[in-house]
Amino acid sequence: MNSADIISRGLHADKLQENELWWSGPPFLVNNEYPGVPMRLVDGDLTSKDEDMISSELKLSTANQVCVVTHIVEPLDVINNCSSFTKLKRIVAWCKRFINNTRNPLNRTSGTLTTSELSQSLVCIVKNIQRTAFIKELQSLEKGTSIPNNSELVNLCPFIDDDRLLKVGGRLKNSNLLYNQKCPLIIPAKHNFTFIVINYYHALYFHAGAETILSLIRNRFWIVRGRNTVRKIIFNCIICKKINSKGSNQIMGQLPVARVTPTRAFNRFMNTFTRKMPQQMREMLKLLCLNSTTRRRLQVVPDNAQINAKDYDMQDTKLLHP
């Protein structure tokens, strides 16, 4: 039926002149109707061999279908874009109020934000952060198994509380501390929420040191590798750099000749007079400073005494005002 098979399979030249398929093509090209598919008639019944062959061809392979449902929590953009801890809590609180008012139009909430709403907004924020940062740990704890040994939270003995939050375990269960102090919330080190929490406590407690800020934060949050993270934030604080900056030390001038020339005692000295200190005393105090050495001498002078220029070298005398 295919005229190209003649050349591809080979044919003598004398036979090519008489080949109608090569020169005219297939016969159905000339006919008005396209030929139908010829039917193969089977004589007699199928044998067992034919039935086995057909069944082997028609045998369907069984496949096990497994459906896995995963809950992927996407991080909130407002957490990564906000730079204020209090502002972030208020934004999430207003969003939660809007959702609740939309779902329950008969029980709408109005007015200023309450303390419970701000607390619930913080729970929502931390839950979203933990679901994106500690996925393996949360899955292991929800299944009732231990967390992986290579996890950063192994030494913290974490557990999941009633709000489905990841908290620090420990040995402070019988202490008199508050529940949030005994079991702080776990947050990752490299996260924008951690940075704004550190900056909030750092500004709230008047730019205190790293250890002070870390101890205050641990009353509510436990930062993974918190000490290094707090030190990094405080090191980049501009206000702390201005406060802790050291002034430049000026280079002192040359000492006078009287200070560097050795002489006998009390040959060159400086007199320093002060006013009377207590009201009952009517004397003045004279301080003699030797120029050639570092020795000092105190001498009491009556208040009514007159300082004579002949007795003291006035060039080396200083009067100190009270």
TrEMBL record:
Any Pfam family the entry gives: Integrase_H2C2
Statement: the UniProt record of this protein carries the keyword Cell membrane: no
Domain of life: Eukaryota
The name this protein goes by in its record: Reverse transcriptase
Keyword terms: Nucleotidyltransferase, RNA-directed DNA polymerase, Transferase
Integrase zinc-binding domain: residues covered: 197-245
InterPro entries the UniProt entry points to: Integrase_H2C2
Example of a GO MF term: RNA-directed DNA polymerase activity
